[in-house]
Amino acid sequence: MPKEFYTERDIEDLFKRGILSLTLSDDIALTELAYEKANRLGMQLVRAQPDNPPCAPVRPYLATSLSPAAGAPAAGAPAVSAPAGSAPASGNQELHSRIRAAVLSRMGDQVDQAMLDIIIERVLKNVGVK
User: Rounded to two decimals, what is the model's pTM?
Assistant: First the structure.
């Protein structure tokens, strides 16, 4: 079955005809402008999945919970140390190192290690650990 695309103009037309909600599925796609227009008009977009704009990347790691053992490196994974100058300055060195090791054990060489350290620091600060 072909996908049905809705543009900003399609959303305006639906709203003018009195349609105040649109059920989204895998066969229906909204452009970014259509999504924004629907939100501005107060149209209800009904979907089974979490509320993500159409261009938002899927981030399953944000929606899944980890077991307490998930922060530990996998058995047989090499020990990873932070590059010089990138270690966190606070007392959360151990937590930072555990998170870093877990990410690197799953992602390997796909990760920019300097950027990973910055992200870990930012997340720890945002959740109030730092």
Answer: 0.38
